[in-house]
Amino acid sequence: MNEIVRAITKPSVCPLDCPDTCSLSVTVSGDTIEAVHGSSVNPFTDGVICNKVARSYPEFVHGEGRLTRPLRRVGKRGDGRYEPISWDAAIDMVHDGFSRAIEQHGPQSVMPFNYAGPHGELAGGSMDRRFFHKLGATLLNRGPLCGAVRGTAYTSLYGPAPGMPPEQARDADLVVVWGNNVTVSNLHLMRVLKDARKNGTRLVVIDPKRTKIAERADLFLQIKPGTDVVLAFAVAAELERRGALDSDFIGRWTTGFDRYMKEARKYAPADAVDSCGLPAEAFAEFVDLYAQARTVAASFGNGIERGRSGGSGLRAGMALQALTGNHGRRGAGVIAKPGLAAPKTTDRLQRPDLIPEGTRTFNIVDVARKLLDADLDPPVMATMIYNHNPVCTHPDQKTLIRALSREDLFIAGCDVVMTDSLAFADVILPAASHFEFDDIYGAYGQNYVQRAAPVIPRVGESLPNTEIFRRLAARFGFDDPIFREDDAALMDAALDADDPRMQGHRPSEVPLDQALEMKAAGGAEPIMCDTVIPATASGRIELYSQDLEDRFGYGVPRYETVARSFPLVLISPSSDKRTNATFGGCSESDGPEIVEINPADAASRGLTSGAMAIVSNDRAKVALKVLVTDKVRAGVLYSPKGTWLRSSETGNTVNALISADIRADIEEGACYNETFVEIAAQ
């Protein structure tokens, strides 16, 4: 008689590279995930999750692409032909490949190649960092690929102090959403905005595209891509001319005002009209709203950082809050970095003290050119791709593919599913999904800490990242006890259990039905310039940054244009089907990706909705499906990021069109949105 398997519901957390870090409710039948829903454990996400997580996670975990056994390459590099092997044989292959490189060229000839696939403290960077640090491998500066420009823009003003939790925006009478497609990449802020609007809050949206949130705004400024700093400077100068800056707040809480405003005063309303492409009346209305508001909250997305003047645009936009005194009370502030409130002890977890003195560091955006540099000393002869799908996320895709095609390069790969990047690996290690191991989760877009436990057994022979790197450490003879610590010990190393914000819980024992709110000292709400003090050297908001002046020559923001060789600019924003490239192999992403185009640009090229077109420049050609819409401004194309190679008949994605040579003004960040192209019917 067959036993009836009853579905049960278990708690979990979403680990994807997204600011919201939702609490989840997972329906499990036997060893299979049947459905994923939101849960109310986290009061910020409170039962709501994005469609892509609900639709694609069961397929991601149990679909045809799932890796369940270690594999060895038996075909040509990149053609995806593999045969199963044992775990011992796979670990031996990694040991042999790394050891050959080290024997010939030293430990820095080995390079980890990872970014931010899962955001759990353990899966994202724990035992793996200890292993590569001890090995003496080349270090990787990962932030310039995404996030570092925005993060440094914020910390240049405020230091590593937590910003405003998004819920507080309910108390604002004006909210500015700048370069943030809320419904796609910051979903739960949408609910906050709805509540605020019911209370009479005004909403301004600044974006090159009329997004869903822009359609609900009191004022929408459809800015030209990359001109954000011009707009922010022109607003600051006009507010000063009207006497609408808060001189008392500026005197008490800021430094560098004179140097900052000397640059801002170079811009007038006419510059916002000419450079930003805004109607004069829209600019004037924005200044009016800012000047009249008592309490302003401002949210800034990552899209701004993807241009040459991205760091300057973010800094100048955030600085408007300080210039107008919009700090020091609930509802006033910059909605950014609230997760800094968590008492993380990252050095204890990752052990950077193991790094040999003098170890070099590569900017992750430079990896392709480093791999192809014949004069590099020592050369990179072995790498491990994990928590990352670089072929589908890096700029200059074709050069990266050429770099990964080197026959003399040993490549180990580790992932949950078979990706375009793993197709270049010599050996593949199957990773467990986050539904199959313990982890603890902070967030970068809200201020709660959550823990999750497995909801299903590990699929096939897959292993968590932590166990994979324990086995590698043992194979390399690393006998220090830190390489044998179990996942509970790693969780306890990730956060300070003695900090009052942990509410008496060891990190490894945070209840699964709780989300711990990270507050300011004494249990107060985090409010910048009240319960939270800027963590800068001066203890004030630094409008002039000596650090950025010393490192990059941008003590104050500055606008710089990029020469254009093609008539259209291509923006590749977040997708409603994928989180970066995660889920790119799922059925939701089958078929060609769309490219949105303004009716005027489409008409002049004979393009209609539903037709296939080729978007091209000197680097590549990409096949995309046309969607004609007035939601994008003339001169701009809009095609979501994270597609896999199979999505285009040309075998390239939009990343092949993007230059790796153009960099942001600070942190040498990738400039995805400085991509100039032409489009024509296929």
Automatic annotation (TrEMBL):
Keywords: Iron, Iron-sulfur, Metal-binding. The keyword Glycosyltransferase does not apply. Residues 7-64 form the 4Fe-4S Mo/W bis-MGD-type domain. Coiled coil: none annotated. InterPro entries: Asp_de-COase-like_dom_sf, MoPterin_dinucl-bd_dom, Mopterin_OxRdtase, Mopterin_OxRdtase_4Fe-4S_dom, Prok_Mopterin_Oxidored. CDD domains: MopB_3 (cd02766). Transmembrane segments: none annotated. Belongs to the prokaryotic molybdopterin-containing oxidoreductase family. This is Molybdopterin-dependent oxidoreductase. It comes from Hoeflea poritis.
